[in-house]
DNA sequence: GTAACTTACTTCAAATTTTGAAGTAAAATT
DNA sequence: AATTTTACTTCAAAATTTGAAGTAAGTTAC
């Protein structure tokens, strides 16, 4: 609707990697000297959003099964994501909120569970006693490290060569752009 | 961990688009004739997953606010995504499941709400009476169309030129690859 | 110095979303 | 005709997210 056929001599690929054309409302092709897109599918806003939703679901269930394999019962995928977001630095709740765009009460809730499970330590900051400083405990680091370990196999499958790496990076940066655009829109209205 | 420095003469960019290097555990740079990545940040599995989680959250809240603007109270973002997934074709619940990798009982639940709200019609298939055929009602199409309309502004911001389009497409296809890899892994184990 | 305001979080209760076990009925298979 | 499989639905419970209200520490303006 927004982008119309940009070039003459349009060719339509009927199938891309398992998806049939029905999944893409708008398809157009371009023939330029570019290496990357042989065909250009014009991807809309909502298609990306739906894809992201699906992929997110997939990942959550994968993470759940990794956790099960590790025999961990008191940490769900959402909490595991919080642990991974904390990583190996010490930070405040506020910084953690920024990292994941969580809602405050939500993080509080997760941190409570993770604290109870012994995965994180919380120390009141010296300078500002309102601010709780968070860090992983030994146990928390162990879990993250196990998860990262298990994740290594996926990294190897996903990043087979330079081309893959490039695409992963473009995907990452494009998602970051989506994040900014959608986030600003929500705050300031487009 | 997986990808080590691939080339000599490594240069590290300390900041990318608002993110500081601390967000990326592994950074390496390459100097090749490629146009796209001046620097290559090696993006891992989990970083992509965290990004996807964040972006998903952003989008959901944006969608929620669009729905509020439209004065719609009986459809949440999740249900709206189902409506958008249905689109303008008539399909069975099974096909819808595939489209979003939903869990059966989940879709059933949403479809019930959407049916009650008058957004979809369900007709038992003639050939196979187990299979319910789903399609949007006038009201459902209206809502989707309003949403797509509102979405147009985002498409214009996101896809400013050919380069943007290419990146959006690469992001889309890369996400699809993630979907497949993570999905297969969940079923068959890496 | 103290009253008012802001910041940084926590708590709780409710809403939403997801999950899984069990059920139903039609179709396919044996 | 009996059995199994498919295509869904229902229900109850669990997980996650949200928002309103609260607390306590810090800041600012008299």
UniProtKB/TrEMBL annotation, chains A, B:
Start and end residues of each HTH marR-type domain: 45-180
Cross-referenced InterPro entries: HTH_MarR-typ, MarR/SlyA-like, WH-like_DNA-bd_sf, WH_DNA-bd_sf
Taxonomic superkingdom: Bacteria
GO biological process: response to stress
Signal peptide: none
One Gene Ontology molecular-function label: DNA binding
Keywords tagged on the record: DNA-binding
Name assigned to this protein: DNA-binding MarR family transcriptional regulator
Species of origin: Phyllobacterium myrsinacearum
Phylogenetic lineage: Bacteria, Pseudomonadati, Pseudomonadota, Alphaproteobacteria, Hyphomicrobiales
